[in-house]
Design a protein that fits this description.
The chain is 29% helix and 28% strand. The longest helix is centred in the N-terminal third of the chain and has 18 residues. It starts with a strand and ends in a 5-residue tail after the last helix. The radius of gyration is 20 Å and the shape is globular. It has 2 domains: 120 residues, 2-Layer Sandwich (D-amino Acid Aminotransferase, Chain A, domain 1); 156 residues, D-amino Acid Aminotransferase, subunit A, domain 2 (D-amino Acid Aminotransferase, Chain A, domain 2, Alpha-Beta Barrel). A hairpin with a 2-residue loop joins strand 10 and strand 11. It has 7 helices and 16 strands. Strands 7, 8, 9, 10, 11, 12, 13, 14, 15 and 16 form a 10-stranded mixed beta sheet that branches. Strands 2-1-6-5-3-4 form a 6-stranded antiparallel beta sheet.
Length: 286
Amino acid sequence: MQVYLNGEFVEQEEAKVSVADRGFVFGDGVYEVTRIVDGRFIMENEHLGRLEEGLNGLKINLHKSVFEQIPVISRELLTKNGHLEGEATVYLQVTRGASVPRTHEFPSPPVEPTVYLSSAPFKPHTKLHEEGVDAISVMDVRWSRCNLKTINLLPNTMAKQQAKEAGVNSAVMVRDGVITESPNANIFCAKDGVLYTYPASPYILNGITRRAVLKIAEQSGIPVIYEPVRFDELHEIDELFFSGTTTDIQPVTVIDGKPVGSGKPGDVVRAIQEGYSELLYQKAEV
């Protein structure tokens, strides 16, 4: 497999990043993962828009000419790796760059950001979409800028590992008594045919797939209330599901050993799954 690193396509095992890179020493960077179906980039402009938001939020000055080349680089990478057929993902990461000495403040003068892209084949988690998954609840101990898709993911990885050690698929994170997100996906709850979701704010990532779900709900006539569900009210909801670029629309049927609603995927998640499948595979406009 080849990757793109700072202006060059190189074999993955030959790619090298300085130990002084601020992504390595501080987690000082942002990333995006874009889904590809038969060479078609799913919601590419939305991913690029969020990348720009993240770069601006961290004050990383990526030259405009480099930013504008990302779609070209992505497609060339897919071609080189033979990922234009079937399903794949493109991973993109931008850090502030390498600087010596190590200082908490930004390098002065600024250094060139490190730009890295890779591609990989992807297989949807079809069985999980059909049957649903189990999860545990964990405290949401992340920082208060979760709206930025940074590479600083230690709390997320710790929550995912906690779920793995508990023998379940994932986790439902809870902050101040309300449900926020999973370690790697947004969360929607449904009650009496109405969707509930944490409003876009610094406490959640406004996911690209989340935005698609909201549009599908609007087109399907499913009401949406932008309010989080309290964890102590979880027993009152009918459905809960995750949404994400590689998660797709994934029903959650058990939390902390107790069934969510009937314990089976419900009508709302099935309707959203159908609309999202059309977006992925039938080029529906969302």
